[in-house]
Specification:
homotetramer; alpha+beta; 21% strand
Chain lengths: 380, 380, 380, 380
């Protein structure tokens, strides 16, 4: 299958499916490049994991996924990291035969809007027909567990980031500062920091849910405190790496930086961010660039917007294809699903961005010089 | 600097600046993973190079860049590739001292909207202040030379691709079929296949040019004939790799697939492409997915839109920063520039997409099985 | 720490220490690039694991390591691989506080001949002082688990490989055919296919063990059935990749191919393997090349010898350094250890070679075309 | 072909054949990861290039290869590096039709001991039959040009390295200190620092040359000043990377570290290097480890020996295979060749080692912190 590793110096490798087989099945992530001396605990990782956990509230799937994570490797006897890779496992619990049998019914039918058809064409008959295998949204738990460590490192480096819903089915959140958004973005199920817009979005999504349908939206990602000069000038621009990271999330159908697609209607004089000096510090009058010039960080806030498609699993009849028969067949409504992905995907976007920024910092400074704690005996 | 290599099995490594020093300076690309037996010639590569060449027409920079390419390595005595990497060099010609002196005047000033400031922060005082170094648009000649080989390979595999302007300063091209677009997209300077829209776009850009300003736009990329199943399911989705490839182009500020950002307003039932069977072949009723489901190709046309920002170099006064002095200084108008990047960047987008698709094909089939010609003695 | 991933298309990523902390700690390996349709079971992997397991016989460490492996991810409901990465975990069992306390006594002392000192200099005070962390021989369990899958794939491709002791403390095994060696090499504790030499080696090692000391040796690796043309001509020669793979095993101090260091005394006419034709098939009169010419496989048997140093942990007093004090201190004898690594390291060498060969096959043919089983619906 | 790139953060990508076609053909190297501010010149690189140049003296091939190198990219107007990749090209000059015609005669015959046969099996009929293509020893010019930059960087870091002949056809050089060896190793054609042994080696090689034959030998590599802690603990041990680097040189058939294969006869108490303290500095009583413990540098001198096979091209009749006919055919004596590779390969070994050490330093410290010169404006 390949492609289960992301990052260069700070890197995660993930494995696992929603429904493994046998006792002790699960999903796991190996995080390589973790500096020595970090006091990681299961509870700390769990806090991030809980952000993407479904099963809470009316906008989320009723599937039972407790997603309890466990650090099984990488800590020394003193409970801190040693420089060794960190291994985190999340055992599957919702693997009752009754659910597996439900999946068995549909196992030859490709769900429209889902990757199933592509998997059949890629891997052939030996499919993991249960729970969508590696194309399940559940694959992202490893990213979030790895992202938790990345966020810890960023915090030590004075870098902060948030991702929140700014648009859903025509309803837009008002603009606000990083700090204001941060304070409010996790106070509602749709993860929108504007309470008034959030209420309208949630109402609209519930209406759509009642129709048996699902809703798409747009998530904004903001990263504060990134020093100027991150990213490489040609193929590994920070913008390119962030695009790679975020477009690797299944439901993402677009990404834009700063003014984004609006640049198609802008003049150079409107799009250029002129320089200014405030309190002896060089900065910019505007931030059309979204903190990235020529793909490299310019020291300003990084601003990115991400298009998240509606959940493809819906409770309406659709024309599907039966792979063994190679015939069109009607797919009956499916009931277990998230009416929107907005309430969960923000944490995956935050995680992928955090991993990318830590990796870029390590490329520039060396993995021994990011989040460097007081540490005796070192020679390098 | 790093990041000058792109691709896994089919990979390009580029080097070079607009203004090297000394006799014989130039830009070059090494293309690794080229199958044996391809009859490459300078003339064949040159045809693609000429697509991105400026100096032709009123919408382009008056800089003299003939960009003559020369294959200096990788061909056997019989004039065909041998499986060895191919080396292509493009010597600099526009390196007259007078131009270099013009650059010297501004060498400490960061041009707003340009990567200069980021380079100062990243590399410090040892800047290539002449012609923007590796952040110059001219860096892309190596990509286009490498892309020419990738396009040759795709042609043998029955895959075709085009990139053309669909929007510029509020003016949109009408929708059309792949074949219609292909027939017309290179008939005007702005590279728009809709002649009526093209005329209006060109007129608007000329007006903006006369103001001393520049114009942004949106380019659409379409890829026909890609088999279902390309791309890896998790971090190396085909969508993620294409996003990486295309967002590594300096002026790109956004990318979207199929319905793109419009998914933020769509229901699942609207966004899902239901299946259909025509002439015994399974296909889709619609193509909201843009040919990519879960990031993997589904066999339908791949459709991508790319936001291209206005050229940052403008003939208007702007507040800049003088790096040695760390003071704000006014930057005088600069005269040599492209009023829009739309007429040239399409070829770079096509090249990066072609390289990405060839690389993905080789990952699945092995580099020995892509564009495999009749070839004796092979054992593998 | 990095460097915990090996391979390009077929790749393993490992994690874990001998003594993790807390309940459920262990070592794990993620194997990426596994083709769909392989009927893997815990029992199948376990068979390979048992080859490197200590605790059996008088030549091995008395440490209790049952090394029970468990496939926790990567299998579909039908019990075969799906193309997804395979996750295998080995829980730690020998983690009784009493052993950990034994390690605590020596935790500041660098064992001569061991990597401890280098780890202190690299990672500083935050050491995994218990059981040598990632520099423990136990790190290799993940390699062997991944190697088991690689061996399965090679078997389907008609490739076989064995590694066995040919020399130990001056005693040499007689030369023999691949098949003869294969039949006998696992019939004694020292893993030598020549019974007479094996008996003398074992006797000598036991004498050395009684002195409180340990013994080194030389292992030969032979790979049969590799097609001509594997490996890339320049930096990724098959010889270079095998050298990388095998020299990544902790105790390895040298590697040689075919005639090896003897070439220093050979003329070209002695070292060149002339061609011959037998039964209509082109072959070689001799095999001084060890199956590798210019680093690429030539279709003949690959023959490699590996120098394995004596276990550094000995029961004799040695001058060590106390890191916190930066003073020389005498290290008391340590009792739990393998008197020689020869009986276990062969399986690690076999595993690393198998992984390297599978990876090279996939590079040439594509990961979809190695071990390709009958499989419907595939498009690529 | 692939595999034409080596290194992670400091990396070289090479291209080119001995006999390109057409005017302006040549070999080139792109060196990525070069820090800004280095005053590189053609003359500086040339000095290293001249070490591997043949055509000088009676022990070398009479081929005319002036190997003039030219830096065509990567320098700023001030003549120092800018952080951009550096491009170096070496044009072919010895491409007279008469020589090409000589090669054409033998173009279907595989030279015993040479990679030709493997290339036929790998790439099929589209061979570069002239001058051995990428399997020619001439491929190494790019490595040496890149190595020159690596050596410059090491010099700034206080690291020095030398490679010299210690054995040839049964004649051994006496042991000596690094400084003594450095002073003498380039005073004779066979590159042996022991003048008495060198004289005997040269005499022996000339005798063998007169027989129409060639001679193998052993080269020792020593690296002084490497800090403790370089290399990663598992798959990317410094020993594994050095083995990869050096075994990627065509004629290398073995590599050993420190005591090397002798460990097969050693007890732990003999092989362990005990600690000592001299002038307040921790060191080792002996250096059996060759400066590498668990594959990581321990701060002591790194000592490596490399087996270099005799040149396969000889002036004696040999049984070859005619590929189109698939028949055994006698290969007539070939006259242009090096009677031994010892006089040239040392510079390639030095280069590959230098590149590997710089890369490992950059992995630990970040590419911005190796050879860091005084440099204003940097933020990272």
């Amino acid at each position: 299958m390949l492609g289960n590793t992301f990052g260069r110096l700070f890197r995660i490798t993930t494995v696992g499916e929603s429904y493994g087989i046998g006792k002790g099945s699960g999903l796991a992530v190996i995080v390589d490049g973790v500096p020595p001396g970090l006091p990681l605990t299961d509870a700390f990782i769990q806090e991030e994991m809980d952000k993407r956990r479904p099963g809470v509230g009316k906008l989320n799937s009723p599937r039972l996924e407790t997603d309890q994570c466990h650090i099984f490797a990488g800590l020394g006897q003193d409970g801190v990291t040693t420089g060794a890779p960190v291994g985190i496992i999340i055992y599957n619990v919702d693997t009752q035969p009754v659910h597996i049998e439900q999946y068995r019914e549909y196992k030859d039918l490709c769900r429209p809007g889902h990757a199933t058809y592509c998997f059949y064409k890629k891997y052939g008959q030996h499919q993991d027909w249960c729970g969508a295998g590696r194309s399940s949204g559940r694959e992202t738990v490893g990213r979030v567990a790895g992202g938790a460590i990345a966020k810890y490192i960023l915090q030590q480096e004075g870098i902060d980031l948030i991702a929140y819903t700014v648009q859903c089915m025509g309803i837009k959140a008002k603009e606000m500062s990083f700090d204001e958004a941060k304070q409010n973005y996790r106070t509602n199920e749709i993860n929108c920091p504007d309470p008034e817009a959030a209420a309208r979005m949630e109402k609209r999504v519930l209406e759509i849910k009642d129709e048996g349908d699902t809703a798409g939206g747009i998530i904004e990602l903001r990263i504060k405190g990134v020093p100027a000069g991150l990213g490489e000038p040609v193929f590994d621009k920070l913008s390119a790496l962030l695009a790679h990271a975020i477009c690797s999330i299944g439901a993402v159908k677009g990404i834009e930086f700063g003014a984004g697609f609006e640049v198609g209607n802008m003049k150079g004089s409107e799009n250029n961010d002129q320089f200014t000096k405030t309190d002896g510090k060089i900065g910019f009058k505007t931030n059309q660039a979204g903190g990235l010039l020529g793909g490299i960080s310019n020291g300003d806030e990084i601003i990115i917007r991400v298009a998240v498609k509606p959940t493809p699993t819906i409770s309406l009849k659709q024309d599907s294809v039966n792979m063994p028969k190679m015939e069109i067949e009607e797919l009956s409504p499916i009931t277990r699903r998230d009416p929107t992905l907005l309430g969960r995907h923000y944490s995956v976007i935050e995680s992928m961005a955090a991993i990318t920024i830590v990796d870029a910092l390590m490329m520039a400074r060396g993995y021994d010089n990011v989040c460097r704690i007081e540490n005796k005996w070192r020679e390098i």
